[in-house]
Design brief:
Elements: H1 32-68, E1 70-71, E2 74-75, H2 80-109, H3 114-140, H4 142-145, H5 150-161, H6 168-183
Antiparallel strand pairs: 1-2
Length: about 180
């Protein structure tokens, strides 16, 4: 698989399976949309915070490399374009962290905004992780593209984060529906 190789993704096919009512997940006859929303919310929070971890790992690796690798007699980080990459990576990590903290607070408080906050956290964090991992690969160059390097793994994983638990496009649609519903 492209990313999250440790997640153990698998294809399962069920055909004509009947499940007794007392064996239904959740233990109660909750409406299917509510079960799906709850399951996705847990997954989205996990993905969002995982993306913060991806960003932190990429920032650490890129900063270390830019501070120790020299080019033209100066550390890479002293070159303006590389410094810009580091600044953008830092801003992406901080933004993802703050939006995840907000979603977590909404979740803990049982806020009516918890669903939209969770979708926003997943969307922002996944987008930032994908861009941030690509930026880290750019800073590390061939070192960050080698199989087994943490930044190469982050790059693979971050792309998948834009797809699972609701693709970026689905998150954008949900956020737009929220905005349109709030303005009505």
């Amino acid at each position: 698989p492209l990313g999250c190789r440790a997640a153990g993704h698998a294809d399962i096919a069920l055909d004509a399976v009947r499940v007794p009512a007392d064996h239904v997940l959740g233990g109660s006859p909750l409406p299917l949309p509510l079960l799906v929303t709850t399951a996705l919310a847990y997954g989205r929070m996990s993905v969002a915070w995982g993306c913060v971890g991806i960003l932190r790992g990429c920032l650490t690796a890129a900063a270390r490399h830019a501070a120790t690798r020299e080019q033209f007699g100066a550390p890479l980080g002293d070159h303006q374009l590389v410094a810009r990459h580091l600044a953008e990576l830092f801003a992406a990590e901080q933004t993802a962290t703050r939006v995840c903290e907000h979603a977590s607070r909404c979740w803990d408080e049982g806020s009516p905004e918890q669903v939209v906050a969770t979708v926003l956290a997943k969307h922002v964090s996944a987008r930032n992780a994908a861009r941030g991992a690509a930026t880290a690969v750019q800073v590390l160059a061939s070192a960050g593209a080698q199989d087994g390097h943490p930044v190469a793994r982050a790059h693979r994983d971050a792309k998948l984060m834009e797809l699972i638990e609701g693709s970026n496009e689905m998150c954008q649609l949900m956020l737009a529906r929220h905005v349109l519903g709030s303005s009505a």
